[in-house]
Each structure stands twice: as C-alpha cells, then as structure tokens.
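Changelog note: in this version the structure field was regenerated for every chain. One regenerated record is shown below for reference.
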Amino acid sequence: MEEPETTAGAMLASDFATLADLIRAHAAERGAKPAIIFGDRVISYTELDRAMDRIAYSLQRDGVARGQAVAILGPSSLDYALVFLGALRAGCVAAPLAPSATPAQLAAMVADCAAPILFHDAAHDIDVPVRKVALERLDAWLGNGTPAPVTVSAHDPFNIIYSSGTTGTPKGIVQPHAMRWVHISRAPPGFDRAVTMVATPLYSNTTLVSFLPTLGWGGTVVLMAKFDARDYLVQAEKHRGSVTMLVPVQYRRIMADPEFDRFDLSSFTLKTCTSAPFSPALKADVLARWPGLLVEYYGMTEGGGTTVLVCNAHPDKLHTVGKPIEGHDIRLIDDAGREVAQGETGEVVGRSPAMMTGYHGRSDATDAAAWHDAAGNRFIRHGDIGRFDADGFLTLLDRKKDLIISGGFNVYPSDLEAVLAEHPDVSDCAVVGIPSEQWGETPVGFYVGGGDPAGILAWCNARLGKTQRVADLRRVDELPRSAIGKVLKRELRDRHL
C-alpha cells in the first residue's frame, strides 16, 4: 500500500498554491524542522507559521488591507524575512527596497507603491509620511491575535521589486503569485531536503528565486546578513549546505580563498548563478573544485524567457548561457522589430508562464518593454544582445544600452573585456563607451590589478581589431558593483567625463 500523500505534497502537485499556505502545511507536517537559520537564531516551521500569523494580524490591526504594499528596508535579517512572509499571509504585497538607493529615491519608492507602512532597520530611518516600524523593535509592535483569513488568486500581486536604476525613481516590477508559483513548482526533486545558503540580499530577485522555493518545499534556509567569502565557506561546511544561488563576483571571491580546498563542501548537490556575466574560466574552476551540479540561469526580474546551462553536462558550452527552459520562447529581433535569421545577432525578447504583470503605475514603460509576434503574443524585451549557435545555445554579447557605436561600427564591450581579462596583471575589468568628436563614441577601459596601464593598453590593442581599439585604460582599486555583482557602468562613464 502506498503511503498517504501529505497535504503539502498534494499542494505542490496542484496547479497553484500560495507560499503562505505551503508554509502552514509544512508547520503541520514537519513543524520542528528548521525553516530559517540566521547566525545563532534558528526558527522552526511551527515558529515561522506563528510569526507570520502575528505579523499578518498586526498589519490588519493597523489597517493595512489585502492588496496594499508593505515596504521593507534594510540588510537581510531574520526579522526582515519574517515581515516579508507575514505580509504575504495578510494578502499584502511585499515591497523590499534596496538600502543602496538614495533617501530621495527610497521615499519616492514608498510613495510609488503606496505603502501605508515601512519596516526599516536603525540605519535607514528615512523621512516618509507613513507609519514606520523599526525591525529592531518588531517584538514590541507585534500583537498575539489570529489574522482574518484572506483569499489570494494566482493573478494577485505577490511583490514589487524595484529595478536598480542609478538615476531617477527605479521602476516597480510587479510579480504576481502565478510567477512565484512557477519558481516554486519548477524546483528539482528532493528540494524538501535542501539546505540553501542565501548570501545575496533579500530585496533582490536573485535571492528570492532560491529563498522562496526552499521554504515552499519545506527545506532549510541559511540566511547571511552580508556576504563574506570565508564566512560563507565556514557556514556552508557547518550546516552541510546543499544548494546555493551566488552571483559571479561571489564565486570569484570564494574560489580565490587560499583555504578553499580545505573546506568540506561534499554535501552540495546544486549551485546556481545568475544576474551578471559568468566567465567560462570561472565556471570551469567551480566545476573542477566544488562538488555538485553547476547551473547558470539567464533571465530577468521582469520575467520573459529563461535559459539554463547545466555546466557539468556541457563543458564545451561554458561561453553560453544555455538553452531556453521548456515552455519558454526566446527570440532575437533587429532594431526594426523583425526576427533575425538563425545565427545572426539580435536583441533578446522572451515569453513564458513567468512574466511580470507590468511596471507599477507605469503603463508607458510596460508598453515600451513589450514586443509582439505576428500572432499577437506578448514578449518582454530583455535589453541584451545575443546570438543562438547551431545547437540552440544562446551566447550573450552585451546589454543593448552598453553597445558602443564607434565610427559607424558596433563594438561590444564584452569582446574587449575578454581580451583585457587575459592579461596576467588584470584581475577584473570593464569597458564603457564615452562621447568622441571624431568617432561618436570610443571605448575606455577600467581594470583592477597591477602593471603599467599604458603597457597593458598597448598589449590589449595589439590583439583587437582596428575598429575595436581601446582609447584609454585606467587602473582602479575596484569596480563599482551593485549588491548582486553587476558592474555599474554609468558610474565608470561619469568618472571619465
């Protein structure tokens, strides 16, 4: 006789379930199991479920209604995670904000999402005309009642993720419950046993695509307040981490740790990467020295199409980001919106079951992000330039906005960066386009490392085509990066101008 199916198992096998309901089911069926570990604090599924109830009750007590945004500001912490999840239990929309934004931008985001309440840490007590609750005083705010039940549909908003714009007000990307359900339901078998190392910030979609499925399946999250390569290795060994999502700069720092090979990482079954270019050499190093599968995902917070590269299975394709996931339609178009021929270069557009509702309050930006095929199907523009090879693997060349047009020729910064990175004195680099009276735009490089910039520039240009040559090269202590490892090229342009 077969074992009776658990409630959580039945929900995961269904067409749709909410994360809040899944956590409730795990609390009933595996209540003592650790749900989240944060430093010395460990919270079980029973405790997590009760904390979510208390937060949902307190939000309702304060008049925060179903469908309203709950803004959260600060670095990753257990209380931050509880507020995020408790807001979902109340039927609210989580709106995590990036602490790196300016106070003016943060205030504009709170106003944009119309959040009636802001949870913040002590370092980010911004001036906004809404109720504010310090995360350090969360216990004092909490009540002990039972929240009124709410009904949530697949099309209701789950969260609003603000884009990482460096000027003006970032756009609020509205992701529905259906989109998050796709992320949860596509997790591989055995995810209920996952011990997921989370070392990127909770306001990032990169983090949420591993954090949320782990809790949806009943696994354990090891949450870190901030990333440190050595601390990551210590925590991974201590907790027997089995799953992680890291960005390339984190992989680079971990693999460069002189003590890396002494840590026992044999418990890992799956390592994933997204958000920024992942060099083939770094992928090969991770494959050689870190046990378990290495999988690269390419996609957008907005949704659209996603590709996947199982690096272990395709060591000859490490220069690509893989093939589209089943059910994801990715095409390439030219500047006129026409699909390009096989093997030609074009802008990436994608369509899938996991797509944003739109940009909050920005129908103009939502429309501008869309491309429609001949049948009228909506695709989302990824903003990247790519090319499919004969085997259907996608190679990314650059962000469309970073393309340099010099003397009428298209120059891809990634091509120049790949050559610069080969120099033994260069440990990190980036190339941007700056205005030029003679050429319209011209490439300028920045690098981290030693040596003589003039000598490295000459070495690099000797290996580049005539139309690609770098006009100037500057040494910097480090490249400006976002919290998820993307190089902030606008800052580099500003430095040169």
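Spot check on this record: The CA atoms of residues 408 and 439 lie 8 Å apart. DSSP finds 15 helices and 26 strands in the chain.
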